[in-house]
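Saturday, quiet lab. Running sequence design on the structure tokens for the scaffold JK sent over.
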């Protein structure tokens, strides 16, 4: 391959302890090595950092990386340092002393990767002149686009990079596919290599549930992840406070995060979460952008987000390390109304788009097809598998009505008998056989469709009507949301098509749901894994870094599976490079030896 570098596999193993590449990483690294501009679009957790960090070590000089947030830069520099890679950052949080120490090292070319905020890079007059810059990488590049969800004015200045640093290749990295052309244009990339990966996140299990009892439903998810990190997203501050208090009362370490808190309090919540002092963050959507915590094992949406873009982004913060994680969305029709109110007086031209996006995510919620496929299709990609094995639909957890054709036919005929002049509430009353005055006055108790669904409550029939509308068998017309059967609805009445209807939530599921596969636990001794976690926590505390900087969960599971007892064996563990071997090897090996001896376990 052009631009490939024979030293690369060695660099990968020596510094990162990885023995292979994730999809498109090799191509992305190749583009950097060949000196051609590039734009790389990979999902969250797709391994974008390595795409610029690895070639930085293979090329002479210093690579400059632009990143939007101090916390993200700090995280990456800490992770690089833990792997024995000389990296540094220059941002407003640096002390004068740190700066004085850094500049000579930069001048001597000892720092291989330098992180800068966009304003520092553009504003820097002196010191960059002394640097031999190998290339410039723009991380989170969607921040340059107005069309993205996270436009940052400082990023706009990056349009000057090509003039300010002529002849130096520019590489952009983002997880937001629709803005890639805009990024290339804003950065004035020169005939860039464009690499776009699949946005499927097969390790995430998606579930959607109608919200019936919010706290119980949230607790049920948390209960499946004892001691693991998770985020609960809410629409409003008061929901954050309520849920946070309720979790704390139950002895769970939960911290709040919302726009109404002071910067210092927010930072404390974030730090508690990153360092595992808090297990759960209960947050409004403001949380998550500034952190790259790889071991978030579940994301709960206590209410419907405002668009599928937001849902993709927020749920995508789970399982960055590639290990299984669970994303549960709890929704209710009420959320739609709350959003309308929260969004307030937006200009009519934007309002239409916003409402359309709300409808799209509401359809996702009420829909019953594969969640992975629905999300991928929304982002313009095809799903590779007919059954993903990782969503409520494919796992058979959705409790479908067995006689959905009959129920749908009864409802649709009910709508037609009412001459398509009534709304959902009224129609449900008639079908249920209500004795309400207005129904009798209209003579609707004499319709053949009167009282033909006595086995369901009025609310349940309402639910079916909503589902039929979501699936396009009914439409709601005019100011009064009058129901009308569509073409597809008529096909159902003639028996030519069978809609899927969900069993009302209160009714017991008829069968036990399949369990998603948990491959990454195969051969792992859970007790040993727990002990390794304990040691990791101890080391993290001693050295003042988050636990995941010491080792990721994937490495610990590998240790608890391979159970190495020698340095050579330890180096085979994914994520163990030379620096970590040297720094932590003895302590982990000792723990593994002791554990295996006392538990009569075979070692590797
Ligand atoms: P992104 O920036 O695309 O969201 P990151 O660069 O943060 O992704 O990487 C996500 C996770 O994948 C990290 O935990 C990282 O250690 C891991 N990772 C990256 N490349 C590899 C690889 N080649 N082999 C194994 N793990 C990898
Ligand atoms: Mg990243
Ligand atoms: Zn599926």
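Result came back. Writing it out in full:
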């Amino acid at each position: 391959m052009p631009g490939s570098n024979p030293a690369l596999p060695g660099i990968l193993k020596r510094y990162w302890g990885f023995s292979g590449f994730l999809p498109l990483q090799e191509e992305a690294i190749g583009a950097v090595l060949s000196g051609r501009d590039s734009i790389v679009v990979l999902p969250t957790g797709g391994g974008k950092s390595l795409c610029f960090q690895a070639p930085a070590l293979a090329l002479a000089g210093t690579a400059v990386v632009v990143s939007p947030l101090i916390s993200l830069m700090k995280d990456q520099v800490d992770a690089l340092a833990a792997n024995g890679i000389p990296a540094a950052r220059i941002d407003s949080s640096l002390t004068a002393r740190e700066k004085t120490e850094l500049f000579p090292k930069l001048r001597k070319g000892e720092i291989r990767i330098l992180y800068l905020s966009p304003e520092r890079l553009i504003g820097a007059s002196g010191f960059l002149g002394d640097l031999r810059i190998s290339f410039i990488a723009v991380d989170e590049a969607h921040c340059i686009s107005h069309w993205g969800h996270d436009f940052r004015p400082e990023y706009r200045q990056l349009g000057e990079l090509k003039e300010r640093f002529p002849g130096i290749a520019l590489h952009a990295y983002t997880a937001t596919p629709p803005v890639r052309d805009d990024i290339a244009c804003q950065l004035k990339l020169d005939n860039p290599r464009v690499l776009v990966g699949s946005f499927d996140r097969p390790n995430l299990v998606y579930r959607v549930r109608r919200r019936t009892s919010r706290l119980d439903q949230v607790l049920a998810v948390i209960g499946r992840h004892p001691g693991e990190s998770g985020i609960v997203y809410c629409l409003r501050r008061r929901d954050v406070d309520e849920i946070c208090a309720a979790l704390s009362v139950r002895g769970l370490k939960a911290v709040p995060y919302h726009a109404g808190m002071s910067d210092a309090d927010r930072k404390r919540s974030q730090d508690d979460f990153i360092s595992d002092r808090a297990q759960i963050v209960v947050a409004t959507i403001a949380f998550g952008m500034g952190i790259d915590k790889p071991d978030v094992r579940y994301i709960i949406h206590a209410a419907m987000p405002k668009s599928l873009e937001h849902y993709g982004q927020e749920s995508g913060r789970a399982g960055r390390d590639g290990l299984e994680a669970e994303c549960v969305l709890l929704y209710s029709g009420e959320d739609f109304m709350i959003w309308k109110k929260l969004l307030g007086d937006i200009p009519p031209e934007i309002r239409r788009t916003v409402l359309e996006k709300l409808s799209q995510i509401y359809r996702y919620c009420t829909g019953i097809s594969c969640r992975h496929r629905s999300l991928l299709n929304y982002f313009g990609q095809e799903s590779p598998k007919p059954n993903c094995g990782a969503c409520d639909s494919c796992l058979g957890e959705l409790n479908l009505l067995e006689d959905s054709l009959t129920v749908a036919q009864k409802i649709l005929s009910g709508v037609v008998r009412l001459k398509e002049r009534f709304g959902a509430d009224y129609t449900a009353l008639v079908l249920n056989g209500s004795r309400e005055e207005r129904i009798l006055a209209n003579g609707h108790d004499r319709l053949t469709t009167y009282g033909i669904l006595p086995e369901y409550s009025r609310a349940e029939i309402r639910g079916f009507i909503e589902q039929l509308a979501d699936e396009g068998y009914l439409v709601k017309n005019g100011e009064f949301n009058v129901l009308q059967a569509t073409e597809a609805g008529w096909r159902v009445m003639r028996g030519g098509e069978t809609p899927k209807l969900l069993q009302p939530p209160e009714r017991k599921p008829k069968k036990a749901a399949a369990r998603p596969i948990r491959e990454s636990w195969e051969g792992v001794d859970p007790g040993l894994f727990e002990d390794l976690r304990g040691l990791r926590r101890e080391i993290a505390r001693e050295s003042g870094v988050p636990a995941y900087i010491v080792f990721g969960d994937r490495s610990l599971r590998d240790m608890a599976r391979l159970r190495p007892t020698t340095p050579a064996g330890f180096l085979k563990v994914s994520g163990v490079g030379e620096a970590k071997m040297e720094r932590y090897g003895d302590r982990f090996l000792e723990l593994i030896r002791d554990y295996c001896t006392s538990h009569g376990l075979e070692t590797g």
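Notes for JK: The pocket of adenosine-5'-diphosphate (ligand 1) is lined by residues 18, 20-22, 25, 42, 44-50, 292, 294, 320-322, 552 (CB under 6 Å). The longest helix spans residues 578-598. Ask whether to fix the surface positions before the next round.
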